[in-house]
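Lab notebook, bench 4. Still working through the backlog of constructs that have no structural model yet. Next entry is a single chain of 313 residues. Request: give me the structure tokens for it.
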Amino acid sequence: MTSPFPTHPQQPIRGVLAPVVTPFRYDLEVDTGAFIEHCKWIVDAGAGLAVFGTNSEAASLSLSERMSLLDTLIDAGLPAAKMMPGTGTASLKETAELTRHAVNAGAAGVLMLPPYYFKNPSENGLFDYFSRVIDSVSDSRLRIYLYHIPQFTQVPITLGLIERLVKRYPGVVRGAKDSSGDWANTEAMIRTFGRDGFDVFPASEALLAKAVAIGGAGCISATANMNPRGLAELYDALTSGKPTTTSSTALAVREIFMSVPMIPAMKYVISKVTKQPAWSIVRPPLTSLPDELGTDLLKRLEDVRFAMPGRNA
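Model written out:
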């Protein structure tokens, strides 16, 4: 069966994207000024914006907050063509609403979780869910990147489901982010569907070289919040065949952040680099990084010569 929507020429989003951390004030409201500043720094460094992903604390943001923040970024002059906002929720109607809003804002694509409350849904149920979202939005500009993170959702995006969705909605179901950490699965996604223009992004720069070598589209990595220029340069080197010295540093930074609770750790470091203490705040149920862990984290980052040029106060 052919797609119900005509194909719509659009430059696909590729390269390195950051699931942008969300700054909060002490009253737990979003600090929009700090959010814009951080997003601009990431884009200026050569990376894209996967706002409202896991590391954005998206599950702790309301629908109105997500939509308002996306509008705020567009109004601030940030390029919609560099954006892949997360729109997946447990509610079909809310997912459709967020997705429609992102498409109308001009986003290059949306990153869509499966409905994650009911565990072990059937493939038919998941196919119906995604199909109804797509049919509800009903816009040829829509580009969906399926978000596979089964360790959080307990609802995997299987190869069988991808095959059905790509066949039904070619060009609309455009790719996937594989956050499973399972290279065999990432490789299978790329080799099976890459020939159909289905772009796969692993969630770590540790898999970037292997992914790019077989047609991967880039990576959507938490630590692109901390090292966007280094990761963008690594991607450019890998895709151009040029030698690079950034790989070992990038992997060392990634390993350090993975040794502590990553979201609080990234926000702690940003708070110290920018001298804005509120950056360390997370929304419950998460808790901020204790100073004893933070002090050790900063020391280890210093040992690998980590820096965030342009983010200093």
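Notes after review: Confidence is low (pLDDT under 50) at residues 1-9. The chain has one domain: 15-244. Flag for follow-up if needed.
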